[in-house]
Design a protein that fits this description.
elongated, alpha/beta
């Protein structure tokens, strides 16, 4: 029904002003397919753009970065466990047929159905050519018929003085690069023989503010690096290295009390100092000041205390876009953005903004507020792509309503707490130790059970089934390659290069088995570890829910993941003896 769509799109636009908008309107009238514009290349935006049927809709993706980042693994890249390319999925090579625009959305005009684009990425990602004027910053209007807002969120500082100027955040690859560089700089500076003992101790003190999953996992990763690798690279100062985790309440608040206690005890054994019950009130270039009067000297500080709306979300007119008290866009159960002050029938045209959807961390479902998790955003993206494809087949875009609401079931959470140990909180899953062999029933199953398992896992397993697609997705081998490199050389500090796994494993089964081993390296599931696996499961089952702790080391044992849910896929990865 292209002609019906074109008539409805022209009626919806009405008069617009300006040469750019007239050109955009003319272009829209000549299109044979409705245009879906996705803002953001995070978990939600990437899932939507990748799954939209390009035969039915014209897909455009606008983002300040040209890749998707698997954010739960940023902590691993920041200390050299993984290289940065191992957690980045390039947009252009992953989504042929999708028109990508590198830039930021500065404004959204619903009357003209255009987005004002500024060809400027994050300040951290600006190249020297942009800064010195070789590449000019330009602006243009990008029109749409259906708009999907998936811009995510930003780190919040709560207005505390000195945070923006002196600390590191951990949300983008550029953040992880800065952190890795700063760790090396602190250790190198502390190695200078002319420094005082007090100055060496300050430089070797690493502080993490925020006891959520990101803060605790980075603390654990950093402690592993200091214990396992810094002692070899910096033997003269490694004994001075300290890690302090500051949290106003208690760490890992989303987990049960027993698991939080286990994590606390584990950190004490690893000499990670936990400061709870105190909040940061000021940050200088050399010290952190707490509201209880304590002063903590530091060499590097990583800030991970929560998220808030991005600038484009803040700039959207609250008289048009409904927002909650935190500034998130309010959406209904089909992810349509609600109109501010809408008083029409539930789900009616007066209650929502037609053709405008939002998902992920920038939105909140009014009837079911979900946690800001990667698995929520990704599933919302998959759901919305399927619904838009169905509406496009019926010729109902841009004003059609999705046929079914979004339904989310939390499948579980995992958290790494250092020295081969972790926390699990999974639904309908048993983790059972076995001797000698690793059997994993489906990488996709693991990916569905916890947001900590990377999207690359299922893709590599699929490609390993046939050699034809291996070279086309060479970047997906980054994890296994880096695992091999780290097993031989340790974590990367100033080292470069790694073994090409494709030259060592031509057999698909061996390649798949190698990836199963790499799941441990990717830190998402931390079931496997270099040299083999030993699993120790401690927990209980209650109400169809499993929770507990596990440890892994170099002994020849394994973990088996068994699903009690018949509907989940029963894909099998060959059992192999680990190294």
């Amino acid at each position: 029904c292209p002609s019906a769509w074109m008539r409805s799109a022209a009626m919806a636009r009405g008069p617009v002003g300006g040469a750019h908008r007239r050109a955009a309107s003319s272009e829209a009238a000549s299109r044979s397919k409705p245009r879906v514009l996705v803002l953001g290349s995070g978990w939600g935006g990437f899932a939507v753009a990748r799954r939209l049927d390009r035969k039915l809709v014209d897909v455009h993706l606008l983002s300040a970065r040209n890749h998707m980042v698997f954010t739960p693994l940023l902590a691993s890249t920041a200390v050299g466990t993984l290289e940065f390319r191992g957690i980045a999925e390039p947009v252009r090579s992953s989504m042929p047929g999708v028109r990508f625009h590198l830039g930021k959305a500065r404004d959204i005009d619903l009357d003209a159905k255009t987005v004002r684009v500024v060809t400027k990425g994050d300040g951290a990602e600006e190249s020297r050519a942009v800064r010195n004027g070789t590449i000019e910053i330009t602006e243009y209007d990008l029109d749409f018929d259906v708009l999907v807002v998936a811009v995510g969120a930003r780190n919040v500082t709560f207005g505390i003085p000195g945070v923006v100027e002196h600390v590191h955040f951990l949300k983008e690859l550029t953040d992880a690069r800065r952190i890795r560089k700063n760790i090396t700089q602190c250790l190198e500076a502390a190695s200078c023989p002319t420094l005082s003992d007090a100055e060496r101790a300050r430089l070797c003190h690493f502080v993490v503010v925020g006891g959520g999953p990101t803060g605790t996992e980075f603390s654990a990763e950093l402690r592993d690096f200091l214990n396992q690798d810094a002692v070899r690279f910096y033997p003269e100062v490694a004994h001075l290295a300290k890690v302090t985790l500051i949290e106003g309440r208690e760490i890992l608040g989303s987990f049960s009390a027993s698991l939080r206690q286990y994590a606390t005890n584990r950190f004490k054994k690893l000499n990670i100092n936990i400061r709870t019950g105190a909040n940061v009130k000021d940050v200088s270039s050399r010290a952190i000041y707490l509201d209880d009067g304590d002063v903590i000297p530091y060499g590097m500080c990583v800030w991970s205390t929560g998220i808030g709306p991005r600038r484009i979300t803040q700039l959207l007119d609250p008289k048009i876009f409904a927002k909650d008290r935190t500034g998130k866009l309010v959406v209904d159960d089909t992810l349509r953005v609600k109109r501010a002050g809408g008083k029409g029938a539930a789900g009616g045209a007066d209650e929502v903004l037609p053709g405008v959807f939002a998902l992920g961390d920038c939105a909140v479902v009014e009837s079911h507020p979900y946690a800001a998790l990667a698995q929520v955003a990704e599933r919302q993206g998959k759901y919305l792509a399927a619904q838009l494809n169905d509406l496009a087949k019926e010729g109902a875009l841009p004003h059609g309503k999705p046929a079914s609401p979004f339904v989310y079931t939390h499948m579980g959470s995992l958290a790494y707490v250092g020295n081969y140990a972790g926390l699990t909180d999974l639904k309908d899953v048993d983790l059972i130790p076995e001797g000698g062999r690793a059997q994993l029933r489906g990488v996709h199953l693991v990916a569905d059970l916890a947001q900590r398992v990377p999207q690359q896992a299922g893709l590599v397993a699929q490609q390993a089934a046939g050699a034809d697609g291996l070279d086309a997705h060479a970047h997906l081998w980054a994890g296994p390659q880096q695992l091999l490199r780290r097993a031989v050389h340790g974590r990367a500090v100033g080292l470069a290069g790694c073994v090409d796994a494709r030259t060592l494993f031509r057999d698909p089964a061996a390649a798949t088995a190698l990836h199963v081993e790499a799941v441990r390296s990717l830190r998402s599931c931390d079931i496997f570890r270099d040299g083999g696996v030993r699993g120790a499961w401690h927990g209980c089952r209650s109400g169809g829910r499993s929770e507990g702790t596990w440890r892994v080391s170099a002994a020849a044992h394994s973990m088996r993941v068994c699903s009690a849910t018949p509907a989940l896929p029963r894909l099998c990865v060959p059992s192999v003896r680990m190294w």
